Each structure stands twice: as C-alpha cells, then as structure tokens.
Amino acid sequence: MTEPSTSGAAAERSTGIEGSSSGTDAGITAGTSAGTSAGTSAGTSASALALQDPVYAEAVVDLLGAVAYGELSAFERLAQDARMAPDLRDKAELAGMAAIEVGHFERLSEYLAALGADPIAAMAPFVQAFDDFHVRTASSDWLEGLVTAYVGDGLAADFYSEIAEFLDADTRRVIIESLRDMGNAEFVVDRVRAAIDRDHRVAGRLALWGRRLMGEALTQAQRVAAERDALSALLAGGVDRPGLDLAAISRLFTRLTENHTKRMDNLGLDA
Amino acid sequence: MTEPSTSGAAAERSTGIEGSSSGTDAGITAGTSAGTSAGTSAGTSASALALQDPVYAEAVVDLLGAVAYGELSAFERLAQDARMAPDLRDKAELAGMAAIEVGHFERLSEYLAALGADPIAAMAPFVQAFDDFHVRTASSDWLEGLVTAYVGDGLAADFYSEIAEFLDADTRRVIIESLRDMGNAEFVVDRVRAAIDRDHRVAGRLALWGRRLMGEALTQAQRVAAERDALSALLAGGVDRPGLDLAAISRLFTRLTENHTKRMDNLGLDA
C-alpha cells in the first residue's frame, strides 16, 4: 500500500535512452515552477529556438494534442465509472481523479494556445483512436474501471515520459506536469486488493482485463504512429536531435511492458 | 451576452431579509481570503462560538452536506451531458464546469471535516432527493443539459445564498465561495441563443423544460425541508438568531422566482 503515484514513478524513473537520459531532471526543473505560467510565458530561449523548426513544432503540437485529448477522454471515462462506485466515498475519489484530468487538459490547452496552435484542432486527429480504445474497453463494473484508471493512466504516463525525452525543456516540463497526480494509485491498489481478498476469483477476471487493456492500448498507439508522420519523424530523430532506432524502440517496449507487469503485480494480478 | 456569472449575481445581490441584509458583504470578505485555509483554520471566534450550539452545528452540517452532494451530483450530471456535446470545444467547456464542481465539493468536505463532521455521512441524507431530481430531469439532448446547468445551478446558488444569510461568517463564506464560477453563464447563454436563432421551435421546447426544472427543484426542496428538522429549525430562527416567518418565506420564493424568470429571459426563453 506504499505504492507511489504512478506518474511520479514514471517521471522519476531514468529511462536510459541514449543521448538524452542525463538531461531529464534539469529539463523538468528548469524554467518557472508554476504550471500555468508555462502556457503564457514565451519559454526559454532554447525551447523557442527548437520550436522555430516547423517540422519539430508540428510534431510537438501533435503530441500535445494527443496528450490533451487523452486527458479529456480520461475525464469522461472516470466520470462515467464514478457512477458505478459502491459508495459515496469512492464516488468522490473518482470525481477528484476526473477533475485532475480536466486541470491537466486545461494547462495543455493553454500551452498549445501559447504556441499559436488551436487546441481543438490539435486534438482532432486523436479523437477516433482514444474513443475506440474507450469503447473497446468500456468497464462493465467498478473494479474494471479502477484497473483501467491505474493500468491505462500508468501506461500512458510511461509512454509520454519516454517521448518527452526527445523534446525541448519547456514542452517536456508541460508534459511531465500533466502526468502528475494521475491514477490515484494508493486508492486503486487498496480497493482492488480488498476485492481480491473478499473473493479470489476476482483476480483471474481482472488479470484478463489488464491484458486486454494492454493489447488495445498498443493497437491504438500503433494506429496513431502509422497515421501521424510528424510524430513518427520526431521519434526517428533528426540531424540535430537524437532519435530511436529499431533497437531503442524494442527497449522502450520492454520498459513499458516491465512497468505494466509491476503495476499489475501491485494490484495483486498476474500480467 | 454580457450576463455576469450566475453565482456572482446571486452572491452580490442584496437579499433584503430583515435583520441580516447589511451583514453579508462583511461576512464574506472577513477572515482569510484563501479558500482552502477556511477548512483547516479554527475560524473566527464568533463562528466558533456559534458552532458550539449543538442544534445550530447540526443544521450547518446538514446544509453543508446538502450543498456538497449537490456539487458532486452536478459534476456527474455535467460529465454525463458533456458526452452529448456537438463538438470538442463544447465538450471541453462542460468538462471544465464539471471540474469546478469537484473543486467546490472538495473544499466543502474539508470544511466539514474541520468542523469534526464526516463529509460522507453529512451528504447521505440528501442523496435520494438530488438523485431523484436528476433522474426526473435527465437531459435528452445537449441543449436541455445546458439549460439545466444554467437554470438549476442558478436556482441552487440563489437558494443557498439566501440561507447563508442566517449563518456564522465562516460558514457563510465557505458556502458563498462554493457557489462561485458555477454554470458558466456566458457560454450557456451563447449556445442556447444561437440554437434558438437557428430554429425558433427550440425556444418552446426549452421553455417547457425550464418550467419542469423549477417544479422538480421545488418538489425536492420541500421534501428535504420536511425531513430535516435541524434545517427547518435553522430557517425558523431562534432566540439569538433571526429567522424566516411565513411572510419572509413568501418573499424568498418571490425572489427565487424572479431570478429564475430573469435567467430564462437571458436564455431567450419564456419562464
């Protein structure tokens, strides 16, 4: 029950991607510490310079649009799942988690607007993939909803933190901050473990559910990567930017899978 | 389109209830200005003294429980209605409104806890009335949802501000603050008026909807008043507290109705 917040774990973890791992902490703590000022200030000069490259800027807007819509659709899902809460206390917990997603969404929108992008237009290309994910993984009960919040948010946080390594300091900071306080890990772990204690058969059903979540998430992520050239180009790197070769991509997936397994284990579930 | 926020209008309006109208502004601005500190500080000595009366304290916990559950259920409703949004921009607006309700709910919970009350237990007596209201007024489309948010939140804000007149300064401030930023009036007025411009028949349907909301709200409010003795006693006043006689209650309903009519008029609807 001492599990730290999912996003915190993802943010603090050293990813070890070549050429970028040592810069992470400096990047996150650099600049202003207030979340909202990031969206309105012009940013550091290094970030401003990086964003002058139109190909890079397009990729950043794409990525921020994906993260922003991810938060908005996570809000909808948590609010929907809150309706299945067994009592008022649990309903209030999920409502709080949903509200946090909206706060993150609003900060990302501000940052997008500060970059001169229309947040709504930036999100549009990702609506279908996220909506499909949520339709295919609609919770049929309260516990499935909790596992989705924990496992899904954790996976998303891991993935975005990895990508954030390739970004300018300002954008990286906005993304990392938007992944904070997600998934309310302790609450979810407590409720899922208690349910398994009451009825051990729950563990088998939820383990299957976790595997399904992972599969659907990978399916939609691949679809997005195939459709969005700018995002793929970002991952591939450029003359002046480190990128991911096939071996690095393989290691990234290994890390994502390992963290997923750890989260399932925290819940008392086989991955 | 220059309509101020619903809650702001309610909070600033002088209610004119005898013996308490002049104290409002002083009460709201007294004490610490930060919202969260209200829940954790011991409060002003006058408030602390008032809350030593167990009958009064019970009524305050009742009232705060009602307001808190009202916010939580408004969150659920707004989140549900966000699913019917015609586009991402409108969805994001409603998500923002829903998140604001959660923030208010959390501050009320903190204040209840600081008073030594269990927020969950305080809310419990009001769950049925609010849930019944929402079941009976479930939106069948986006516009109905907007009218409910505007008219329902406005009515609730008016009602609670009136009752807040009878409370100690700390409690009054917490309640008034919890009514701020509700209903995002400008956004709703804009969308409803635009829909009427596109198709005038919409106005007749939504006018009926507004009347139904008012009727259902009064039904549930009466039910709560009949069931909760402490709350009724609060309104009736005591030796050292002003209360509402029948004439004053009648004037209160007149004011609520007048404000409702004004809000309907803002939307371009007959009350």
Automatic annotation (TrEMBL), chains A, B:
<feature type="domain" description="Ferritin-like">
    <location>
        <begin position="56"/>
        <end position="238"/>
    </location>
</feature>
<protein>
    <recommendedName>
        <fullName>Ferritin-like domain-containing protein</fullName>
    </recommendedName>
</protein>
<dbReference type="Pfam" id="PF13794">
    <property type="entry name" value="MiaE_2"/>
</dbReference>
<dbReference type="InterPro" id="IPR012347">
    <property type="entry name" value="Ferritin-like"/>
</dbReference>
<feature type="region of interest" description="Disordered">
    <location>
        <begin position="1"/>
        <end position="39"/>
    </location>
</feature>
<dbReference type="InterPro" id="IPR059125">
    <property type="entry name" value="Ferritin_actino"/>
</dbReference>
<dbReference type="InterPro" id="IPR009078">
    <property type="entry name" value="Ferritin-like_SF"/>
</dbReference>
<feature type="compositionally biased region" description="Low complexity">
    <location>
        <begin position="19"/>
        <end position="39"/>
    </location>
</feature>
